[in-house]
Specification:
Layout: H1 4-8, E1 14-16, H2 19-24, H3 28-31, E2 42-44, H4 58-68, E3 74-76, E4 81-83, H5 92-95, H6 103-131, H7 133-148, H8 160-190, H9 195-204
Antiparallel strand pairs: 1-4, 2-3
Length: 205
């Protein structure tokens, strides 16, 4: 659960979306010729007015652009981004473009998950003492399932980035709770003789 964001929030290589992408339906690799190689958050200025007479002829457009490219200035992307989908076809980061000016939001979501871990420890600790380790572990495991299963639908939801953040908080909250409750419950069942072995197996699993 803690490493889920490595896949869910994966950020593949990306570049600015350009008029060439709209005219010729280019993929990530094909469109790299029309973006600066130094910074994926930058694009060339005035591309919408460059080589427009070749908008229906890609080889001619490419030749025209190559001639003008050395004199072009750069600016921040303003039309969105194209991602390399050779490894990840779709992630939360690609769906909501959590790069460049939105990079801080991606980091904030990771911090939100960690805050769920923080609060889970403090709330489920006293709860385990009141309702018992077994019941607390079962509640936490149910909570993990309820919070994690909807994550597969997030990239298709119009408000998915905030829904995703909320579900990741709940995932963190219940995952640390399940781990703590299960560990304590296991140690109480096996007794002192086998605690070292079972404690290690609990953490590995």
């Amino acid at each position: 659960m803690q490493v889920g964001s490595v896949i869910l929030q994966a950020i593949p290589d990306y570049r600015c979306k350009t008029p060439a992408d709209e005219n010729f339906n280019l993929n990530y690799e094909e469109g790299t010729e029309f973006t600066p190689s130094t910074d994926p958050c930058l694009q060339y200025q005035g591309l919408e007015n460059i080589c427009t007479e070749f908008n229906d002829d890609f080889p001619a457009y490419l030749t025209c652009f190559a001639e003008k490219k050395p004199s072009l200035q750069t600016e921040a992307c303003n039309a969105g981004y194209i991602f390399d989908n050779s490894t990840f076809t779709r992630t939360v980061s690609t769906e909501y473009e959590l790069v460049c000016e939105n990079k801080e939001l991606e980091s904030a979501i990771s911090a939100i998950f960690m805050s769920g871990l923080f609060f889970g420890v403090f709330i489920f600790g006293p709860l385990m003492d009141k309702i018992g380790r077994k019941l607390a572990a079962m509640i936490a495991m149910f909570g993990i399932s309820a919070a994690s299963l909807p994550l597969v639908l997030i990239p298709y939801h119009e408000n998915g980035v905030w829904t995703y953040a909320a579900l990741r908080w709940l995932s963190g909250f219940f995952s640390i709770s399940a781990g703590t409750a299960s560990f304590v419950w296991t140690m109480e069942i096996v007794g002192p003789k086998y605690r070292t072995w079972f404690g290690s197996l609990t953490q590995v699993s």
